[in-house]
Write a structure and sequence with these properties.
The protein is an alpha+beta fold. The chain has 15 helices and 15 strands.
Length: 396
């Protein structure tokens, strides 16, 4: 009996040693760096190819650059955790996103090379292998295809009506705008639009919450939101400490809690209004004691809720030297114009060119900066009663 016991014990010991040996070999074999090999058919020799960080809310510089030979190129490096990069072709004339991790990754595709200087590359049959993170990313974000279909569906049949409404808004024809806006067709369109964006928000929030314990959570925050608002602070608060300390966790934290600019001077800048007329900020603030520079967007609910408070402050203090300059960070100019027509703000409204918002380090909206007559920022993030109290103090 003891002999059998010892044989079984010996067998278990051998199996345990084999298992440990296999684990050690697997651990040892885990790659400590990445190799990204590309093979793009149709790519001309000498085409510049850059590796640019993605999933950030800033314009990023390339971390590596090479050129193509027979459509092939290679990037190598080391990462502490998976990162999203854009493989950019021909100085930002087209890009393919890839989630890179320490592994041997292959990217293949077919490229249609632009014939004109202002045209971009067109890619098809893109295949990425070797990155488990990239496979998982595609799986978890597959719902976007349904959202794209929903977006196209609720716009069908409203194209002409939208054109008429846009034309009426551009020409200031309020009678036509009201007529279209009160029509059953337009109200139905707006109801579907509201339902669509509610679905987008719900899908994004569910995706982020599902991954609150790992770096995927803050990563998805960066990819699902182009800009943050204070509403996203509770979303970040739910993350585990591991998630918060990850690379993307630190990016989210930095964006949600940007460094204060109080005490710094505002550089002169110029932007265009809804009619395409260029304005210089120094001309706008000339002779004013204080100016509130307000960054907002048509899609930002907290921004829109704040507009009535801005109107109250403007009415009360405009004749005492107070001015407002609203700068929209909208990427969709039509959406911005629509919001302007709805809000009827009586002060200068300009459209951002990315450079101005970057200069102010705008990471969340609404973002407001109160500037004195010397161009120095004296306060920030003043809203509602806080703004009125500050103006009352300054403009007694």
């Amino acid at each position: 009996m003891n002999t059998i016991k010892y044989k079984i014990f010996g067998l278990c010991l051998v199996l345990s040693m084999v298992s440990y040996s296999n684990q050690a070999q697997t651990k040892k074999a885990a790659p400590q760096s990445y190799t990204l090999e590309g093979n793009i058919k149709g790519l001309e020799d000498g085409t510049t190819i850059q590796l640019i960080p993605g999933a950030t809310h800033s314009a990023e510089s390339a971390v590596a650059e090479t050129t193509s030979k027979d459509g092939k190129f290679t990037f190598t490096g080391k990462l502490n955790e998976p990162r999203l990069f854009y493989v950019s072709f021909g100085k930002n004339k087209g890009a393919i996103p890839v989630l890179v991790e320490n592994a041997k990754i292959k990217l293949t595709a077919e490229a249609e090379v632009p014939k004109k200087e202002d045209e971009r590359f067109n890619f098809k049959n893109e295949v990425i292998t070797g990155s488990k993170a990239n496979d998982y990313y595609k799986k978890e974000t597959a719902f976007r295809e349904d959202l794209n279909k929903d977006y196209a569906d609720y716009h069908k049949g409203t194209e002409e009506l939208a054109k008429l409404y846009s034309k009426a808004r551009t020409t200031g024809n309020k009678k036509v705008m009201d007529s279209i806006g009160n029509s059953p067709e337009w109200k139905n369109f707006e109801a579907k639009e509201k339902a669509f964006f509610a679905k987008v928000q719900s899908s994004s929030e569910n995706l982020i919450t599902k991954h609150k314990a790992t770096w995927w959570g803050p990563f998805f925050m960066m990819t699902q939101y182009s800009y943050f608002t204070p509403d996203q602070k509770p979303v970040f608060a739910q993350f585990s400490e591991t998630a918060k300390k990850s690379y993307y966790g630190q990016l989210v934290d930095k964006d949600l809690n940007p460094k204060s600019l109080i005490g710094t001077s505002v550089a002169n800048f110029g932007l265009k209004d809804k009619d395409g007329k260029a304005y210089n900020v120094k001309d706008i603030v000339a002779g004013k004691k204080y100016i509130l520079i307000d960054f907002w967007a048509s899609w930002c609910a907290p921004c829109r809720k704040e507009i009535p408070n801005l109107k109250t402050a403007y009415t009360a203090y405009a004749d005492k030297g107070f001015e407002i300059l609203s700068i929209s960070i909208d990427k969709d100019e039509k959406a911005w114009l629509k919001a302007l027509g709805q809000e009827n703000m009586q002060w200068h409204n300009l459209l951002d060119d990315n450079k101005v918002s970057n200069a102010f380090n705008v990471k969340t909206i609404p973002a407001t900066y109160l500037v004195d007559s010397k161009g120095v920022i004296i306060s920030d993030n003043l809203r509602g009663a806080a703004l009125e109290e500050k103006l009352k103090e300054l403009l007694k």
